[in-house]
Design brief:
By secondary structure, the protein is an alpha+beta fold. The chain is built from six helices and 14 strands. It folds into two domains: 124 residues, no CATH class; 108 residues, no CATH class. The strands form four sheets. It has a six-stranded antiparallel beta sheet with strand order 1-2-3-8-5-6. It has a four-stranded antiparallel beta sheet with strand order 9-10-11-14, with helices on one face. A hairpin with a 2-residue loop joins strand 5 and strand 6. Helix 1 crosses helix 3 and helix 4 crosses helix 5. The chain is globular.
Length: 255
């Protein structure tokens, strides 16, 4: 299936003409005023914190959220229990949820068409995941921040990019000024920019006042190892294995 990606202001929009799908992804840069309706998934500190119905002009405030993913819902799937159904489906699909909303799973999944629709949408969220969202997966390693890593300088020397990075807090990666950013833009086989490139360009655009001729002239703070890779070299690899300390130990090994 083909997906169309659009980056507008601070919103990444994912849509598909082949199958009903329209998902908007917002990152917390302060109070947010929504312009469309749908089912909102709020993530905070690597967990699904809340699911709620959204309407235009709804204000999302506060600091205790990192990512909001808004799924446009077809009219035939409007139901009083949609938040509970979505919570249970998210859990079954492997998304880590906060204990606070775990009680919402006490519900039988009787609306099969709605459940199938939500499963498809959540698969898209998992596939295009960008930001602090943890997906449980058999054999897939989960990474944990500890205080012992906050003062370790991790070096990046990959795809013509060079940088010194510190994992200061769970959702805070500091890239030191002087970093060299990859300037060659990798393209797909069809000559188009891929998802990772578009996201990398978006992060660079948000920090354009700190970049001059491909060199970082001020420190930059990002939210994840994934964002660091997108920002420095447009991703395309497992960045947990790219960042290494002075002895060659990866940030993945430290976590």
């Amino acid at each position: 299936m083909e997906y169309e990606l659009k980056v507008k202001d601070d919103v990444l929009e994912i849509s598909s003409k082949e199958k009903f799908c329209h998902i908007s992804i917002y990152h917390n840069h302060g109070d947010l005023k929504l312009t469309s309706s749908g089912l909102g998934f709020i993530f905070y500190q690597q967990k699904l914190k809340n699911i709620f119905e959204c309407e235009p002009n709804l204000m999302v405030k506060g600091k205790k959220w990192d990512v909001l993913m808004l799924i446009e819902m077809p009219k035939q799937f409007q139901t009083d229990n949609i938040e509970k159904i979505a919570t249970k489906v998210a859990k079954e699909k492997g998304i880590v949820i906060a204990d606070k909303i775990a009680k919402n799973m006490e519900l039988a999944l009787t609306n099969e068409k709605l459940v199938d629709f939500l499963k498809d949408q959540i698969e898209v969220i998992k596939y295009f995941n960008f930001g602090p969202v943890v997906i449980k997966s058999n054999g897939k390693r989960k990474h944990h921040w500890t205080k012992k890593v906050q003062n370790i300088a991790f070096k990046v020397n990959f795809q013509a990019s060079e940088a010194l990075v510190y994992w200061q807090r769970r959702n805070e990666m500091l890239i030191k000024k002087g970093a060299v950013l990859r300037t060659e833009i990798p393209l797909n086989k069809d000559g188009q920019k891929g998802f990772a490139v578009r996201m990398g360009e978006k992060i660079r655009s948000e920090n354009r006042d700190k970049i001059s001729n491909g060199i970082l002239k001020q420190d930059v703070i990002l939210r994840s190892v994934n964002e660091v890779g997108l920002f420095l070299y447009f991703g395309g690899t497992n960045s947990w294995k790219v960042l290494k300390d002075k002895d060659g130990k990866t940030i993945e090994e430290w976590s």
